[in-house]
Amino acid sequence: MTDPIYMLGLESSCDDTAAAVVRADPTGTKILSSVVIGQTELHAAFGGVVPEIAARAHAEKIDIAVKQSLIEAKLGLGQLSAVAVTSGPGLIGGVLSGVMCAKGICAASGLPLIGVNHLAGHALTPRLTDDVAYPYLMLLVSGGHCQFLIAHGADRFSRIGGTIDDAPGEAFDKTAKILSLPQPGGPNVESCAKHGDETRFALPRPLLDRAGCDMSFSGLKTALIRARDNVVIDGTLTQKDQADLCASFQAAVSDVLVEKTRRALSMYLEHNPANPTLAVAGGVAANRHIRSALESLCTELETDFLAPPLALCTDNAAMIAYVGVEKFLADDFDDLTLSARPRWPLDQSSPSMLGSGKRGAKA
Ligand code: KG4
Ligand code: ZN
Predict the structure, then answer these.
(1) Ligand 1 in contact with 249 (CB < 6 A)?
(2) Is 46 helix (H, G, I), strand (E, B) or coil?
(3) Which of 61, 153, 167, 308 is the most exposed place for a label (fewest CB within 10 A)?
(4) pLDDT, tens only, 8-17
(5) What's the distance, CA 200 to chain centroid?
(6) What top-level class would CATH report for the domain 134-311?
(7) Which is the closest atom of ligand 1 to the Cα of 16?
(8) What residue spans define the domains of the chain?
(9) Which of 172, 249, 294 best tests ligand 1's pocket when mutated (most atoms within 8 Å of CB)?
(10) 165 lines ligand 1 (CB under 6 A)
C-alpha cells in the first residue's frame, strides 16, 4: 500500500445505526469519523430489542448516518476507496438496511463493495486501535455472543470455546429487567453494582466443574430471581438489595469469565508461546469490573492485555470500515449480489454451539 485508503463503513446489525470513515496508510490507521445513532428509547418500553422496530429505524437513519460521517471526515464519495458494510450475522431487517444502502452507494458511484462479518469487526478492533500482530487470543463478549477466538487473519479464526446458552450481555440485560433497572442492562447494572456488596448473595459460577472453556450464563438468571424473591418485600426491593444483587451478579459473571479465560489462554499459549496477547471486545468488554479482573489475570500470566476504548467496545462502524481495509488490501471484494446473512459463524469449521446467544439469530 502506498496511497492512503479511505474506507466508508456501515453497521446496522442490531440496535445501533452507524457509519464511519477510516483512513489507512503505511504509517497507520486513523478514524476520521464515527457516527452512532442508538435506538435505546425506541425499545425501552419492551425490555429488549424489537426486530421490526429496529429494522424501521435503521432504514430511516442509515442515510443520515452516512451523510454525517462524510461531513465529519470532510470527504466526498469521490474521495473514498470502497464501501464496507456489515452483511451478517444479526437481525435480518437491520442488516438488509445497511446492505441495501451500501449497494446503492456503490451502484451509483462505482466504488467497490465489501461485505463484512460483524463479529470480525469486534475481533479485529485491537488491530485498529493497537496495531496488534496476528495471532492473538480474542474474548468476544457482547449481547449476542461469547466466544474465545484465535485470530490468525482477517478471514481466519479458530473458535476454542464459547457460551452454550445466553451471552453475558444478554444476562446483564435480563438482570436489569429482573431488578427493575432500565435497558440497556450492562451499564445500568454496572453503575448500580458500584455501591453493592458482591459477597452478600452466593450466586453460582456455572460450568467451572467442566473442563475446557465453554460457558453458560442462563442459570444465573434463575438463581438471581430466587435471591431477589428471598429479600423482596411487598413487591419492592430496597436500593441496598438492588445494589447487592447487581454486585453479586457482576462478580459471578466476572469470576466465570476470568477462570475460563485462564483455561483458554493456556490452550492458546501451548501453540503460540511467542504471541502472549489477550484482547477483549464486544459491549461487555466496556464493563470496568470485568476489564480489570481480566487485566489482573494477564499480569499474573505475563500476557499482554488489550481492551479497546469504551466507544469501540460496543457496536460501531469504524470496526467495520477497518475490516474493510484489511479485505481491500487482500483484494477480497463483493459484487452487487451481496446478500444479508443472519447467521455467519467466524469459524466455519467448528460445530455450531447450542444457543450461542439468543438475542437475534446469530452465529
Ligand atoms: O457489542 P454490543 O454493542 O452489541 C452486540 O453485538 O450485542 O453489545 C451490547 C451488549 C448489551 O447486552 C449491553 O447490556 C452490554 O453489551 N454492555 C455491558 C456494558 N455496556 C454494554 N455489559 C456489562 N457492562 C457494561 N458496562
Ligand atoms: Zn456487536
Answers:
(1) no
(2) coil
(3) 153
(4) 999 999 889 9
(5) 30
(6) alpha beta
(7) 3
(8) 5-127+313-361, 134-311
(9) 172
(10) no
